[in-house]
């Protein structure tokens, strides 16, 4: 017993000594006197390779700047014009495409989607109740959330056709149907559960109704009319090195080989929170660009400046250089609350309310993004980050929004 207590005491002394002696990342961001100093300090503290931030106040741009690097190896600076994958911010862009097709009379938001698909999507738990486009756009379709990064194609657009991918998961004849495992045990329209797979189905509907790939529909009807010159759903549209490199960050205990990435969230959080490793004790690993076979859920690449053009259009009721993104009726449909409060009181047509603003966030391997706007105030905030988020960087994104509202929006 005495030997055990002695050993525990020695281990405790060693642990305490290690805790005091191990180098730590200094935290100076809270003391920054201006927003640029705050953002620059955050990059160092959180090992963020690069940030691109744009802010609109009273419908006018008041801040547009890049911080850090789009690529660490080449020391290519992150700028407002650097395109990168924006992950799930793609979904409300898909929503605009769908509503444009509605304006052209090519689809009905409340019709059964099976009328526009080459295979049937039918929840085996729903007793034949149909799934509609509105339900897909509000995450109430009864299609479960699903994505697997093992399906991604490194360095190129996925060669797997969207409908083939969806059929494999959602049709009883599909190789990965697994007895309907990708459906909720709930009737469509009754439960809200976020669904990347449901967004894929919505994208397939858009392509069938529009008679063209989603990339072409978005380019011709959103990106070009708004002047979003660096935006595309296709990796093939970008020369090598044009897109910001995507990064994973590993937290490592000093003097040891113990590291953890976002793939080990608990260990990663504990190492970061308790020991706060210095920048020199963090490992930053580049990812390739990825092609996702379920690209409607998050395949758009865009720059902060491009997203600012989209934000200004939304703040102006959907106006473009030569017309409108949507009819007044469809614009109102896009931004109205879609669901009964007992199901969800923040969901719009792919957009969602958060902290007094409307928008969407996005995350995937090597990217973390936010796009939010306030039509009443005429304000918008766009933040693009080229690293995988973890709990600490999620807190960092929240801190950025607080500081932007205080320093730049004067709220």
Short description:
With 411 residues, the protein is of the alpha+beta class. Helix content is 33%, strand content 17%. The chain has a domain at 84-240 and 290-407: Beta-lactamase.
Under CATH at level 1, the class of the domain at 84-240 and 290-407 stands as Alpha Beta
Q: How many distinct helices?
A: 11
Q: What is the first-to-last residue Cα distance?
A: 61 Å
CATH fold field value of the domain at 84-240 and 290-407 = Beta-lactamase
Query: In terms of per-residue confidence, which ranges show pLDDT below 50 for 5 or more consecutive residues?
Result: none
Task: Give the overall shape.
Answer: globular
Which architecture of the domain at 84-240 and 290-407 would the CATH scheme give at its second level? 3-Layer(aba) Sandwich
Spell out the CATH superfamily of the domain at 84-240 and 290-407.
DD-peptidase/beta-lactamase superfamily
Radius of gyration: 23 Å
As a percent range, the share of strand residues is 15-25%
The overall pLDDT, averaged over residues, is: 92
User: Strand count, sense and closure of the main sheet?
Assistant: 7 strands, antiparallel
The assigned structural class equals alpha+beta
Order of helical and strand elements? HHEEEEHHEHHHEEHEEEHHEEEEH
Helical residues, percent: 25-40%
Strand order of the largest sheet: 3-2-1-14-13-12-11
According to DSSP, the number of beta strands is 14
Task: Please tell me about this protein's structure.
- With 411 residues, the protein is of the alpha+beta class.
- 33% of the residues lie in helices and 17% in strands.
- The chain has eleven helices and 14 strands.
- Strands 3-2-1-14-13-12-11 form a seven-stranded antiparallel sheet, with helices on both faces. Strands 7-6-8 form a three-stranded antiparallel sheet, covered by helices on one side. The chain has a two-stranded antiparallel ribbon with strand order 4-10.
- Strand 6 and strand 7 form a beta hairpin.
- It is globular and about 70 Å long.
- The model has no long low-confidence stretch (mean pLDDT 92).
């Amino acid at each position: 017993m005495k030997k055990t207590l002695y050993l525990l005491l020695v281990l405790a002394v060693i642990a305490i000594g290690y805790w005091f002696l191990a180098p730590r990342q200094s935290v100076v961001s809270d003391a920054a006197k201006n927003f640029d100093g705050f953002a620059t300090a955050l990059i160092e503290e959180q090992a963020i390779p690069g940030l691109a931030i744009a802010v609109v106040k009273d419908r006018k741009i008041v801040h547009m700047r890049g911080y850090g690097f789009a690529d660490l190896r080449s020391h290519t600076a992150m700028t407002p014009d650097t395109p990168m994958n924006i992950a799930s911010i793609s979904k409300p862009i898909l929503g605009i495409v769908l509503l444009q097709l509605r304006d052209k009379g090519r689809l009905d938001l409340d019709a059964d989607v099976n009328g526009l698909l080459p295979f049937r999507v039918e929840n085996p738990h729903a007793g034949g109740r149909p799934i509609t486009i509105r339900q897909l756009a509000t995450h109430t379709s009864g299609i479960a959330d699903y994505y697997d990064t093992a399906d991604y194609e490194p360095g190129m657009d996925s060669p797997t056709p969207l409908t083939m991918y969806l059929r494999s998961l959602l049709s009883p004849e599909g190789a990965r149907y697994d007895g309907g495992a990708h459906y909720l045990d709930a009737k469509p329209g009754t439960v809200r559960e976020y669904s990347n797979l449901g967004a894929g189905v919505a994208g397939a509907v858009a392509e069938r109704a529009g008679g063209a790939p989603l990339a072409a529909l978005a380019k011709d009807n959103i990106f070009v009319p708004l002047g979003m010159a660096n935006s595309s759903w296709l990796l093939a549209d970008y020369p090598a090195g044009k897109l910001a490199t995507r990064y994973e960050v590993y937290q490592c205990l000093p003097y040891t080989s113990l590291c953890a990435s976002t793939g080990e969230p608990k260990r990663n959080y504990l190492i970061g929170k308790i020991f706060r490793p210095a920048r020199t004790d963090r490992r930053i690993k580049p990812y390739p660009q990825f092609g996702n076979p379920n690209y409607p859920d998050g395949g758009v690449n865009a720059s902060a400046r491009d997203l600012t053009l989209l934000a200004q259009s939304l703040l102006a009721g959907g106006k473009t250089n030569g017309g409108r993104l949507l009819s007044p009726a469809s614009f109102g449909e896009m931004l109205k609350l879609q669901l009964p409060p007992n199901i969800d009181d923040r969901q719009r047509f792919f957009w969602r309310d958060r902290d007094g603003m409307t928008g969407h966030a996005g995350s995937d391997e090597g990217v973390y993004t936010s796009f939010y706007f306030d039509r009443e105030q005429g304000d918008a905030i766009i933040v693009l980050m080229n690293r995988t988020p973890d709990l600490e960087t999620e807190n960092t994104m929240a801190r950025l929004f607080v500081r932007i509202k205080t320093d730049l929006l004067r709220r």
